[in-house]
């Protein structure tokens, strides 16, 4: 990966599209947004794979992320809560949480930051019908 640094932005031409990073979210993605997106994206991909192997079908999945940052000058990320909402038919709350725990243990992004950031993942089963 190559990053081009200017006064306004940091950009990288990736295979999918150009990534623009900025301290001003009207100009690009802020670094903490990318960190949280990496955690949520990795967890969701691993979780979907585990649910597919277990033949657990769902209609929709969303993730709500809450971020707690330190009050000091560094303003580092201290905690990220990823709350998954899974919508489907005949979903078992306990089984979904157990699968999510397994996903967290196998997500490379979450495991890369566990010493520095408290990552909590919860799931809510929403049964239709």
TrEMBL record:
Name of this protein: OsmC family protein
Family matches, as PANTHER family: PROTEIN YHFA (PTHR34352:SF1)
InterPro entries: KH_dom-like_a/b, OsmC/Ohr_fam, OsmC/Ohrsf
SUPFAM superfamilies in alphabetical order: OsmC-like (SSF82784)
Domain of life: Bacteria
UniProt organism field: Alkalibacillus silvisoli
Pfam family, one: OsmC
Signal peptide annotation: none
